[in-house]
Amino acid sequence: MYKDTYIRVKKLFINPDKEWESINREKMTIRDIFFSYNMPLIIISTIAVFIGSLFNYHEARLDNALTHASYTFIAFMVSLATAYLIMLKLISALNIKSDKETIFKLIALPSLLIYITHLVVTLFPEIFFIRLLNLYAGFIIWEGYRHLFNVDKQKNVLLSFITSAFVLLLPLGVFQILYSITGL
């Protein structure tokens, strides 16, 4: 099961054009996508944050590590759900024919890049610049729109930009809210 996750992630990042063609042919439910791809990487990222918080700070405090790990889990879950619900409404408002599963694929699969870079930076904070790779999620989303939706080029660019903004910025926003509430 997790080997399939690795293969899908690798193919999506190396050749998104070809992989979106394959994804488009697959019949997967939202549940299948979430539990096969997103949940494993969210859990691994959460565990990495817990471990990283114990070893990368001056004080290795269990309560801080648990708090940081919880925030990671919450931020990724809330941002994934929020981005999906917003794009579901937007695509419907624009009268673009699509189903819920296709819209979820377009949000959930590029989000994997965010989880992976977060995991790497958490374990190796010195290479924080690797977060720039998150911008590649925008290209993955653009390729996804080309294969999953029958829209003209202008709508593709607009929808890709909006979707990318949600996928990239919502996790940061949720993190900011959580940390500002608690003052950590």
Structural notes for this entry:
The chain is an all-alpha fold and 184 residues long. The chain has one domain (2-182). The chain contains seven helices and no strands. It has helices spanning 2-14, 16-25, 30-55, 62-93, 100-123, 136-148, 153-182. The longest helix is centred in the middle third of the chain and has 32 residues, at 62-93. It is globular, with a radius of gyration of 17 Å.
How many structural domains does the protein architecture include?
1
Strand content: under 5%
Largest sheet: none
Radius of gyration: 17 Å
Helix count, per DSSP? 7
Number of strands: 0
The secondary structure category is mainly alpha
Uncertain stretches of 5 or more adjacent residues: none
Helix content: over 70%
Mean pLDDT level: 89
Distance between the termini: 37 Å
Brief rundown of the structure:
The protein is mostly helical and 184 residues long. Helix content is 80%, strand content 0%. The chain is globular, with a radius of gyration of 17 Å.
